[in-house]
Write a structure and sequence with these properties.
alpha+beta; Alpha-Beta Plaits; two-stranded antiparallel sheet; 2 helices; about 15% helix
């Protein structure tokens, strides 16, 4: 079965209000809040392309793009 591979993970920092919902829903702890209370993707290699952060962001500040991989 093909696994999705991360192509890009974009956070529109001006839109992010730092609620932490994306951080809480990420099953692989890819995201965290920085010292400005804005979401940042710290561990992109761990991203499994579930897109929970994108779906749960109330500010629509996250866009995750994935491509089908092989494995």
């Amino acid at each position: 079965m093909a696994k999705a591979k991360l192509e890009s993970h974009h956070i529109e920092r001006e839109w992010c209000k730092g609620c932490g919902i994306c951080v809480a829903f990420c099953p692989k702890q890819v995201l965290e809040l920085d010292r400005h209370e804005k979401a940042v993707a710290k561990r992109l290699d761990d991203c499994i392309c579930c897109k929970l952060c994108e779906m749960r962001c109330p500010d629509l500040a996250i866009q995750v793009t994935c491509r089908k991989g092989s494995e």
